[in-house]
Amino acid sequence: NDQLALPVGTTLDRFIMRKQEDFPYATGELSQLLRDIALATKIVNREINRAGLLGVTGTFGQQNIQGEEQQKLDVIANIRFIRALRNGGEVCAIISEEEDHIIQTGNARGKYIVAMDPLDGSSNIDVNVAIGTIFSIYRRVSEGGDGTLEDCLQNGTKQVAAGYIIYGSSTMLVYTTGCGVNGFTYEPSLGEFFLSHPNIRTPKKGKLYSCNEGNINSFPDGIKAYISYCKEQNYSGRYIGSLVADFHRNLLKGGVYIYPPTATSPNGKLRLVYECNALALIVEQAGGKASDGSERILDKTPTELHQRCPLVIGSPDMVDKVEEFMKAEL
Ligand code: AHM
Ligand code: MG
């Protein structure tokens, strides 16, 4: 496994370059695209770090298409990522949580589609809690010109890469191209990401459960029963309310994150195309599992860009257990 050949401390650029060498016929476009995302991440990271100082926190006074308040930094992150992807030239179309329709970059020959939530958990910005960016990369199925709906509604198994950035006590970029998961930590004074978490494997079992227990009265019976089971087992409840941060902790420590259907969100809250699918590919690549309660997330066929989907994700034994409880309550 050549991942072992790349030592901790390897820069992200070098890592991407070395990975490309493993595929002699690769054109380098995916590598360039990953570098474009890393560049946009550095810019967004700078904006986030300065947010408290520059007075750019607080709401922007408008709502996004899901009727949620948009924060200024959501708008900034959206603009920064779109600009980087447009300038990079490898992407023909983008799906963003912040925009109703497909964003055409004008790169008619761009081979890739990016689906992203530019800044997730943005209600946490004002209180200095970790937030994140989530992205998925697909190869287009259409033959040039604008990206089509068909390009954008591909099954999660078709992702060629997926990743997230966590803006936490340090900033990290974690991604997969389908050969394991690697994590890079940002060194702000050098402006570089360094390999810090090579070949991440999630523990098979865990002792953390993460859900918004305030909604428990409207959870499906199977989830209620599973939460009682967690308490019987003396598991710890851990919920930040920032998907990337909750996911990242559970990925490293072992745990399960659950966003089930609720009274106010009958299909769950999270979005299949640019939240669930990306994290599902990452967790599977790290040895974990992702389900909607009964079906594997990656097998679901999206029908709408902003479609919501229940999410149960994390350590494989814990996800299996949740599915068992769900089945028993049917
Ligand atoms: P956002 O995309 O509007 O930022 O909302 C998504 C966030 C996730 O990060 C988090 O896991 C979830 O919403 C928390 O929801 P809730 O407050 O209902 O528990
Ligand atoms: Mg989101």
Automatic annotation (TrEMBL):
Binding site for Mg(2+) 1: 97, 117, 119
Alphabetized InterPro entries for the sequence: FBPase_C_dom, FBPase_class-1, FBPase_N, FBPtase
Top-level lineage group: Bacteria
Sites where the protein binds substrate: 120-123, 212, 239, 269
Span of domain Fructose-1-6-bisphosphatase class I N-terminal: 11-198
Associated pathway: Carbohydrate biosynthesis
Amino acids binding Mg(2+) 2: 117, 120, 275
Major location category of this protein: cytoplasm
Keywords carried by this UniProt record: Carbohydrate metabolism, Cytoplasm, Hydrolase, Magnesium, Metal-binding
Cofactor: binding details: Binds 2 magnesium ions per subunit.
Required co-factors: Mg(2+)
Reaction equation(s) it catalyzes: beta-D-fructose 1,6-bisphosphate + H2O = beta-D-fructose 6-phosphate + phosphate
Similarity annotation: Belongs to the FBPase class 1 family.
Assembly notes: Homotetramer.
Protein's name in the database: Fructose-1,6-bisphosphatase class 1
Native source species: Pontibacter saemangeumensis
Lineage of producing organism: Bacteria, Pseudomonadati, Bacteroidota, Cytophagia, Cytophagales
